[in-house]
Amino acid sequence: MSENVNIDLSGEMNTTTDKKGFQKYVSEVELLLQHVRNGAAPALVLGVLSNRRPWTQFVATENFKVPASIPRLSRRFYRNIEYFQANYLVVFLGLFAYCLITSPLLLIAIVASFFGYRKLMSGPNTWKVGSWELTKTQQYAVYAGGSMTLCWLAGAGAVLFWVLGATVTVVALHASFFDAETVPPSDSLEQFPMIEQV
């Protein structure tokens, strides 16, 4: 009466659930960082920039209105962030370029750090301190310490906080006061068109 029944239970379970609100953006940022680590950053940036909205729509002053309530502000904010993400990225890159142009010492420090990194990666370099030869890991540590010191002396910390602060301020003000009802429905929009969840 008892028979051996073999049932194959191997495989993968897909337990994805639709996330809403802030959790949705956190999971998308985690997915974005995973792709950046895999070397897809340039293609991702170009993919996002290809979805840039017209600047006439982005700066149309007749569409700026004070939100009627806090829930409306929240919906408007998320919808504008999703719709104008490429424009906000261009604003960030523009502010960053402005900082580099107005701070030539920082530009020199970044270029020197870049060429130092290229020299370190170019081949089997041997560094000697006295009679002690540095390993590749120690060379990277010396390079990182020197590069960070050079950037700190050039004022990279102040520039970084200025760029991030200015970007957050501009994006928050625009996303809060731009009337989202003038924006087409976001059903057909993809936040990160180059990313595919597997």
Large-scale geometry: flat
Placed side by side, the strands forming the largest sheet appear as 1-2
Q: Give the averaged pLDDT, no decimals.
A: 79
Question: What Rg do the Cα atoms give?
Answer: 24 Å
Number of strands: 2
Low-confidence stretches: 188-196
Sketch the topology as an H/E string, one letter per element. Answer: HHHHHHEEHH
Q: Main beta sheet: strand number and arrangement? A: 2 strands, antiparallel
Strand composition percent: under 5%
Number of helical segments?
8
* First-to-last CA distance: 44 Å
What proportion of the residues is helical, as a percent range?
Answer: 55-70%
Structural class by helix and strand composition: mainly alpha
GO cellular component, one term: Golgi apparatus
Subcellular location: Cytoplasmic vesicle, Secretory vesicle, Synaptic vesicle; Membrane
Keywords: Membrane, Transmembrane, Transmembrane helix
Pfam families: PRA1
Overview of this protein structure:
There is one protein chain. The protein is mainly alpha-helical. The protein has helices at 22-37, 41-49, 55-58, 70-83, 85-102, 104-121, 136-153, 156-177; strands at residues 127-129, 132-134. The chain crosses the membrane at residues 86-117, 140-164. Keywords: Membrane, Transmembrane, Transmembrane helix. This is PRA1 family protein.
